[in-house]
Amino acid sequence: SDEFVTALRVSAVTVWLAVPCAALGAVPMALQRLDAVVALEAGVTSVVLAAQIAVAVTGGNLVGLALVAAGGRAVSLAGRAVLARRLVGPIALEIDLAYPFWSELGRFGALKVVHQLASLLVQHLDRLLVALFLSAGTVAFYAVPLHLAQKLLVVPSNVSLAFYPAACAAAAPSGRSTFYFLYERTSRAVAVATFPLAMVLVVFAGPIL
User: Fold this and answer.
1) Distance CA 78, CA 75 (A)
2) Predicted pLDDT of residue 176
3) b/e map of 133-154 (b: 16 or more CB within 10 Å)?
4) 3-state DSSP of 121-164
5) C-beta of residue 190 within 8 angstroms of C-beta of residue 156
6) Per-residue confidence (pLDDT) for residue 15, from 0 to 100
7) Is 36 in contact with 83 (CB distance < 8 Å)?
8) pTM here?
């Protein structure tokens, strides 16, 4: 339908805005100010969710929900731009075509693209196989518990965002003891945060499903 097509196009704009958002998010992550990004995203996400609930309750359609999501992404982009400018100070945030490491960045970027594609394949191939060999309706019964279990991956991925810049700073031979300490503390934090959530899924799997 026309409504679905319009909602899909608006959602595509939201995805497109996510690219510069990720680029600007690298600035506070490199400076180990992930707390500022988390605070910004928590605020934007809360407002977006409240607005989407309001749209759904008042009888809004898919286009309205998609517009709210796109607006939230635009606000997030503006907030990240302001945050990056405040953190780097007088350093110019611009693209320099004479940058001597474009080839190195290109190789690294290509590896990241391959990594993202492989991750998407691993996460969604099983659902495609279920639909092909069983039925499309079976995918819904399969996807619900799978989606709940995959939510646990949010914990180590978010912890790694904070661990990575600190680990890079301690990667020199003189900082090995600090690196081992950070790795041990991070592993314990992931285990402590993930284990109770996993137990909740195990104990309440029957009632939930």
Assistant:
1) 5
2) 77
3) eeeeeebeebeeeeebeeeeee
4) HHHHHHHHHHHHHCCHHHHHHHHHHHHHHHHHHHHHHHHHHHHH
5) yes
6) 83
7) yes
8) 0.58
